[in-house]
Amino acid sequence: MIRVLFVCLGNICRSPMAEAVFRHKVEAAGLHNYIEIDSAGTGSWHIGNPPHPGTEAVLTENSIKTDGLKARQLKAEDTETFDYIVTMDSDNLTDTAAVKTNQAQTEISRLLEFHPDLSETDVEDPYLTGNFTKVYNMVTESCDYLLEHIRGRENL
Ligand code: 4NP
User: Fold this and answer.
1) Scanning 1, 11, 39, 94, which has the fewest C-beta atoms within 10 Å of its C-beta?
2) C-alpha dihedral sign at 103, 45, 4, 143
């Protein structure tokens, strides 16, 4: 099983959105028996909470299931149990790298690294900007490229 973890700050806006979108794409590709997906936040404020209403709304509008999404905090052990950790911005990347254990083999990246046509490096935080649709579009396009990357690397 290949394990993919999306990481943002609160785990209520961007990373649960990416988790749900990527799961949708993995299921559509018939790869759900090969790829397991989760998300976490580097912060602890929203542990146990469902996604932000803006994330919930944009996913529902796009017929993407949101069941089971519940915020949790990133833990050091995640860097050993996940093969790919995909962060939403540069702060998340730094904070994830800071808890990576010596044994960890995981690849830590930023989601937008996989998108060849976007000049931004960070997925903006819709908790602050309110731009859930813009973030959804960036996330969904980038997830297509991420899936291509993983399929190539893992011969799927
Ligand atoms: P997220 O957005 O990292 O995309 O889930 C945020 C949600 C909550 C907070 C910050 C960012 N907060 O400070 O509570």
Assistant:
1) 1
2) negative
What is the fold of 2-154?
Answer: Rossmann fold (3.40.50)
Which tokens belong to 60? 């529902």
Looking from the CA of 150 toward its CB, the CA atoms found within 13 Å total: 30
Short-list 140, 126, 121, 99, CA closest to 10: 126
Question: Cα separation of 76 and 103, whole Å?
Answer: 11
pLDDT in tens, 98-153: 999 999 999 999 999 999 999 999 999 999 999 999 999 999 999 999 999 999 99
Give the residue, out of 13, 88, 131, 132, with the most ligand 1 atoms within 8 A of its beta carbon, to mutate for a pocket test.
13
Verify whether ligand 1 is closer than 6 Å to residue 9 (CB atom). yes
Cβ atoms 70, 12 nearer than 8 A? no
Q: Which H helix or E strand runs over 107?
A: strand 107-110
Distances (CA, A) of 105 to 4, 46, 54: 13, 28, 34
What is the reported pTM? 0.98
